[in-house]
Amino acid sequence: MSSKHDSSTPISEGSNHITVGIITISDRASAGDYDDLGGPAVKKAAQKAGWQVLAEAIVPDDAARIQETIRSFGKQGCGLILTTGGTGIGPRDVTPEAIRAMMRVELPGFGEVMRAESMKITPNAILSRNLAAVVDHALVIALPGKPSGAVECLSFVQSAIPHGVAVAQGTPTSC
Model confidence over 95-122: pLDDT tens digits? Predict the structure, then answer.
């Protein structure tokens, strides 16, 4: 799914005019071994927030494929790129490493809040490696692969996203 968006169009800080790309990262879902549930759950949450989903993809747990897709979505005009999956401690969980290898700056507060709030729901949240970073001119947020966890984590940081997207895109803000 794609749509034309002029990335030079300013996004005001309080605006819901956020263009989103959603990437499901899973070897099994990309191979068709099971249905992707995380991507659709994140898409529904993004649309509920009033954001426009421009692009979606399912890729394997492969750093190069993750990076290619993030860069592609940024070039398509996605100011916010949400990934779901690959943030655990399994041997194929490489999402944080893929993002860190290409980021301009990491935003540690996002991961800290997602883990702290998730700890109130499950003690296993301490094992999550969720993060946010600026890649090119997009805010990239790595969410858990479990659909409910991805949506919950997105809700924990949602209020900071419009400002984060505006700053990542170089839009003048109130700060």
Answer: 999 999 999 999 999 999 999 999 999 9
Strand partners, 19: 52
Contact 135, 74 (CB under 8 A): yes
Which secondary structure element, helix H or strand E, spans residue 147, and what is its range? helix 147-157
Distances (CA, A) of 133 to 3, 44, 122, 140, 164: 24, 22, 25, 5, 10
DSSP class of residue 79 equals S
C-beta of residue 11 within 8 angstroms of C-beta of residue 18: yes
pTM: 0.90
Which CATH number do you get for residue 93? 3.40.980.10
Euclidean distance between the first and the last CA atom of the chain, given in angstroms as a whole number: 34
Give tens-digit pLDDT for 52-78.
999 999 999 999 999 999 999 999 999
Give the three-class secondary structure for 59.
strand
DSSP string, 116-141: HHHHTT-GGGGG---EEEEETTEEEE
Domain that holds residue 76: 19-168
